[in-house]
Specification:
Helix content: over 70%
Number of helices: 1
Radius of gyration: 25 Å
Shape: rod-shaped
Strand content: under 5%
Length: about 60
Amino acid sequence: MDTGSLKVLELALIVGVVGYFYFRQRNNLQRLKDEREAGQQADEKTPETDRGDGDSRS
């Protein structure tokens, strides 16, 4: 192999590694965002039930 081929392989390896970490981080951030939204939706439902309990006592 000549040096040109090695440079192309090196570039391909770097692009592959960067792409791998990019998509991995993107998936992790999306998962965290989904978990946070699910937690906020669960928190929003809890006060409504509390208000309903308070109204029934009055």
